[in-house]
Amino acid sequence: MPKYNLCFLGFGNVGRALARLFSTKSAELAELYDIECSITGVATRRMGWLTNVNGFEVESLLSGKDQPGTIRERDFDVWLRNSRPDAVLETTSLNVENGQPAIDYLQAALRSGAHAITANKGTVVHGYDQRAAAAAQAGKRYLFEATVLDSAPIFSLFRECLPAVKLRAFTGVFNSTSNVIMEAMESGRSFDEGVQAARELGVTETDPSHDVDGWDSTVKICALARVLMKTPLTPNDVRREGIRGLDVRTLRAARAEGRPYKLVARARIDDSSVITATVRPEQLNATDPLASVRGTSLGVHFELDMMPGLTIMSHRPNLQSTAYGLLADFVNAVRNAS
Is the pTM for the entire model greater than 0.90? Predict the structure, then answer.
């Protein structure tokens, strides 16, 4: 049975959930796919560049206990070389403007002979073509299923199950934080109370600006357009409006009317490959495929030349859901490479 070395680049909430998932799924991975894994590298701002060629014990790693054989390396290049990864799983923070430094990290991982698996939308928006070419040249995979709808299969669905299909348009409710805030305000609570509710659910950061101002949804539009429509789209190309302009009275009236507001992301491509894209609060009719998206749930509706509509929903995703997207990408990478 082959044993794969894993490097975790970023070890926040998603990275920690992923480590737990590899541990709990280890017997299934071995029995069903002949896959055995060992975490030989972990890197964060807080912990530094840590390697352990014997493999980290997951529970000790999660609790922060020192482990025999652990070495703190001086920089990324040394860390990558000494941890000898078969796959680098990257979950660092999003850089909306240029996707760095995650792009350079993943490029170096591919050059070293490792699969590059990421939950970072910026690497797709700003560097998809280069990463895909580097992966092909190295005979490795660059995969990113966890970037848009947590673990719901979007990119793999189009890649594996929808050959020769043309995507004409899509509409998405991509941001859990905005859902939670608007629903809190529909019940009479303030915007700040809605933000606090989202924090308590663990779906937003201390500063929720990326979520409530529409940047998270904007970058997801750009990622889908780049990969599925095969057309570059930058965040500055998207007309963007967040939810700060909505008030309690407006939201409660819309809900009573049966046409609640959602932060809706839309993109459409014409026959000349020109994309128009928006992110803004919209009222959705009860018959809309995305009208039932509530709470932390997410959804996307595709318009295709071969079918008028295809809707994918991710119901109440959590950290484990996002982590599973990364684990599934890893399994698919090593199975297809074998």
Answer: yes
